[in-house]
## 1
Amino acid sequence: MEIIRQASLLHPLLSEYRDQGFSCGFVPTMGNLHAGHLALVDAAAERCDKVVVSVFVNPLQFGPNEDLATYPNTPEDDENALSAHGTAVLYRPSVEDVYPVGLESQTRVEVPGLSDILCGQSRPGHFIGVTTVVNRLFNQVQAEKAFFGKKDYQQYLIIRKMVSDLAMNIEVVGIDTVRLDNGLAMSSRNNYLSASEQAQAAWLYQVIQDTARQYQDDPSSASAILDRGVDELEKKGFVADYLTIRRQSDLNEPQAGDVELVVLAAAWLGKTRLIDNLEFVLT
Ligand code: PAF
């Protein structure tokens, strides 16, 4: 596995791959890799000849009171895991390399509307930071396909819309969430949870599943079902940010006739904000 720290060194290597006719799959990450990230790497390796993984903790997507300074950093474990999963290139740039003009002067990319709802409402500016960095990384890596986890469902849809709206020449592939045995979605932020909180955190997915089941039985009672779900979360010790049912395609409220839906939730457990979701189809 090649480890590259500067974009200027990435270009020659990746053009060599292209000249040799290899296809490239890209997995952008912020490091502290877990089984969820490695599922993205494996999916990329199944579909592409060479897998490029970036590890970059993007300051632009963290709010002033968020966890940028304490975001878990495990470079050696990440390198070992990526190399064991057949990664060809680990791109680990510095902030200066990704944002050579400085954070303030950096041109931003915004997907309006979709970036302002749900997590965008609680984390203003977060998705502008995500789309800006992903756009820049896409341009640096120039892969044919990029792989994103559906645990970050809103992020996944925003990236797809950015790629479509800007006619970017890359295919965005969404990969299913990887879960612990108790149902808790894998996330780097699970590291912030104590052992007892990790067990408690599994209730988030439980409530999401119950919500989807109840809605399938009786879509006309959506608001009562969601109220019950929020009550349940609070009884289990969460402070709910949102619990909602939306259309899979654009995260708008479902209209009559919409069948491809998703339950999305965000909730605080102590100082940790967790998100999760479940796609379902109304039959
Ligand atoms: O999902 C993440 O880890 C980040 O938001 C991403 C896509 C790597 C951009 O920094």
## 2
Amino acid sequence: MDKFIIEGGRQLAGEVEIQSAKNAVLPLLAASILTDERVIIHKCPRIMDVLNMIQILNELGCRTDFDGETLIIDSADAANHEIPSALAKELRSSVFMLGSVIARFGRARIAYPGGCDIGLRPVDLHLKGLKSLNVNIAEEGGYINCNCGKLIGADILLDCPSVGATENIILAAVKGEGRTLIRNAAKEPEICDLQSFLNKMGAKISGAGTSTVSIEGVRRLHGVEYTPIPDRIEAGTFLIAVAMCGGEAEICRAAADNIAALIHKLREISCKITVKNDKIYIKNGGTRRSLRMIETMPYPGFPTDLQAPVTALACISEGSTVIVENLFETRYKHVPELIRMGADITVRGRAAFVRGVPRLHGADVVAGDLRGGAALTLAAISAEGMSSVTDLSHIDRGYSGFEYKLASLGAKIRRIRV
Ligand code: EPZ
């Protein structure tokens, strides 16, 4: 198991380039089996979730070649409709594969993706949406078995704007018969990226980014060469790092509009932020006024994936901050570890009440999930003294070269194998 060894307390300065969005790339990989022609994805991040998804594609019979940041997928010989259970459990987002595997083979089998580190993570909206498209679904023995004579377009209303369910329905409907409407669809930028990827393959999708997405089924999709959007959560993580440590940095290849909610908050607490094309420039002299209230919401509200990092920021901001996590049931695993670093936080249900302290002190902490691990790392580089962060497998799922990027900004952080 790897751990970070961190000597905190240094200001940050320099520039970092943002990777392509994990949560955009994963559905694009699922979409790649909708054609038997070659798919090339440029600037593909080498993170564990992507490597696991590639392994699933290989198990389905796809040929893949991942050289540097260029990923080539050739699914001409794909023939297996069963998503391997070990990988399905490892990777929540494997459930997105259902829609595209059914569209390709007329059937799919996947182990029920268990609850994971941030909550129950149900898939009822995915299954309801697929059933609306004429898919027969049997859940037995921990497996979901799907089969379908012909995917037929439908008018689907989602009970909540689920990102994964929206993507799964798009992937199933894109080659279905007739038109599909998804109402109360998720509006995340990653949905827009999936729409532009599929339309480049010959799909007819419109409305992504609004609450109604329309898909006109087409008979065939052709190969594509594509560069995904930058990772808004990684960009937000580095902005919060500068806000916590003080200093200044340039975040390159960042889509500022996609994290407007965070930028608005950071300006409120006295960070100086300017945006020029795809660069975000942030400067913080060390003052951090109170964040007051953070409520996580579906896009364009404050993103749940930045809740843990912003909780770490609240720990060393003036006054008190109330944080409400509306999306997931147990997304506060980082709180007990922050308290060990001297934070003053009380959690009641979905709310965390944070009273700011001048500084955190170093401690040996354990990451419990992806974004919580990032939050603990930010807390450690801003704290006084030495810290270690253990169980980096969570961080490695979603951040490529996290410690190298932080070190290039001046943080004293290194990875050791124990
Ligand atoms: C996606 O997860 C992201 N993952 C998550 O990022 C992100 O936190 C989440 O969207 C919200 O933005 C990927 O894109 C791979 P949801 P997803 O379905 O699709 C409920 C990260 O750290 N729900 O939008 O699983 C669910 O319980 C990860 O990068 C149902 O009730 O999220 C939750 O309360 C973590 N039934 C809410 O919807 C369903 O069938 C939002 O979940 C599906 C979801």
